[in-house]
Fold this protein.
Amino acid sequence: MIDDPYGDEQLVELYDLDNPSGEDHDYYRALAAGTAKVLDFGCGTGLLTRSLVAPGRVVIGVDPSPTMLGYARRQPGAEAVTWIDGDHRVVPPTGDVDLAVSSGNTMMHVAEHAAAVGALAAALRSGGVLAFESRNPAARAWEQWTSEATYGERDTKAGRLKEWLELIEIANGRVTFDAHNVFEDGRDAVYRNVLYFRSADEITADLLAAGFSDVVIDGGWHGEPLDAASRLLVVRATK
Ligand SMILES: C[S@@+](CC[C@H](N)C(=O)[O-])C[C@H]1O[C@@H](n2cnc3c(N)ncnc32)[C@H](O)[C@@H]1O
């Protein structure tokens, strides 16, 4: 069992192929228009982070996984980004960031949600915006995460890969599962994941307590109204 669910070099090499830039990245890039300083929290491989680079704009990527950030630092264009190893405790409280984003459901990995949004508030200037997405607990995505439903086999540059999820525990909005990855040589890399499914009300309460206002939670990337069937909570708040 490996603690860092993003700690396997071979799987990190596959991450961007499995998680390409899509309408989520378009959404965050549109928010960045006209900004001078942007911070990407839980930036992972930095695919979005590097695409936020623009003339005259400072771009910072923060992530606690040395494997993810090591990959990010090796990519073309990485030198235009300031990469910081760590979680919310290392976010510089400069009070001058125009936009903080957190893509790929990163906030669901964060146990200390209130402290993390507090740290992002301290990084932002007054009027700065925090934007992130989180899976909607009302849609109960974990019910689809059975070993049978998630089992797959595919050819990758690391060879033939068999993969599936194994649900371990569901308790108080906290879903624990193991991601199994069996390589050709029989190695099963098992990653323990813990995801916090927070409701719109819980997220809003933490944002307001951290000093944010104008909290807007949409049900999709194009301003869709939020309802019980919405897969995602797309969250935006102003400091
Ligand atoms: C699903 S990946 C998303 C990466 C990237 N933002 C993207 O959109 O592809 C989740 C990321 O969250 C990071 N992460 C895990 N726990 C974290 C924490 N407490 N604070 C910040 N980032 C965290 C992981 O290292 C990983 O890179």
